[in-house]
Amino acid sequence: MRALFTAATGMDAQQIRIDAIANNLANVNTTSFKSSRAEFQDLFYETLRAPGAESADGSVLPTGVQVGHGVRFAATSRVFSQGDRVNTSGSLDLAVDGDGFFAVQKPGGETVYTRDGSFKLDANGQVVTAAGYPLIPAINIPIDATEITILPDGTVSVQQPGQTTPTNLGQIELSRFQNPAGLRAEGGNLYAPSASSGDPETGIAGEDGFGQISQGFLEGSNVNVAEELVRMILAQRAFEVNSRVIQAGDDMLRLASSLSS
């Protein structure tokens, strides 16, 4: 009975959908987290009669007879919509308003990208992520700096004792991708480029379509809790309906078996 196997694929699909929803809800307070959604495709069809086939008297039949075999998991698509800005007043807390990622370097030399701008200082005064990955290009804050200023274009300057004018330390650059949904999530709020995302394009914040940098703010998660709860309820109901199809198919087989005996 096809219905048994078809309904089983539906139950598997809803389990994956629940997994994606659970991950979104778990990260509702994660800085710069981007929600994801599960996407599905229908499986192959068994063609019992092809559309447009000729009948016995030579007429063309307007419809065919095709029986589907269920659903399959196709992809998890990450949504890169802007999250709400959270005011922290931290001098090294940065939010990107618009398009762009911060580039950071892992210990092995690999460049990865993040929207999480909760930067810190290491023992050498270098600006790093919470995991200790340095910002690219490197920014070093002098030990005697009394005030750090980061402009919307990423220009970093500090005020030092005995000086009347701020000292320019460099500029924070942003990177963007042709297809950000193709980035590979690595955990830790980090993304790595892939063949699907394309190569990174580097630019200055506020220019050529890049977003601006806001000092003293962090980007919150873009998870909408109400929408995720609605999706969870729908997935649960769909799972229940598919399980009832399996139960109905089992009842039909039991009835057929009792009639034949």
* Domain module tally: 2
Proportion of beta-strand residues? 25-35%
In angstroms, what separates the terminal alpha carbons?
Answer: 19 Å
Across the major sheet, the strand order is 8-7-11
Coarse morphology: elongated
Multimer state: single chain
Assign a percent range to the helix content: 10-25%
Q: Rounded to an integer, what's the Rg over CA atoms?
A: 27 Å
By DSSP (H or I, 4+ residues per run), the number of helices equals 2
Described by strand count, sense and barrel closure, the largest sheet is: 3 strands, antiparallel
Unreliable residue runs: none
Short description:
This protein is an alpha+beta fold. The protein has 2 helices and 20 strands. The protein has 2 domains: 2-80 and 223-260, no CATH class; 85-219, no CATH class.
What's the structural blueprint in terms of helices and strands?
Layout: H1 2-26, E1 36-42, E2 45-49, E3 65-68, E4 71-78, E5 85-87, E6 94-97, E7 102-105, E8 111-114, E9 120-121, E10 127-128, E11 135-136, E12 147-150, E13 155-159, E14 167-171, E15 173-176, E16 184-187, E17 190-192, E18 201-204, E19 212-215, E20 217-219, H2 225-260
Antiparallel strand pairs: 1-4, 2-3, 5-20, 6-19, 7-8, 7-11, 9-10, 12-13, 13-14, 15-18, 16-17
Helix pairs in contact: 1-2
Keywords for this entry:
261 residues, 23% helix, 2 helices, elongated, alpha+beta, 3-stranded antiparallel β-sheet, 2 domains
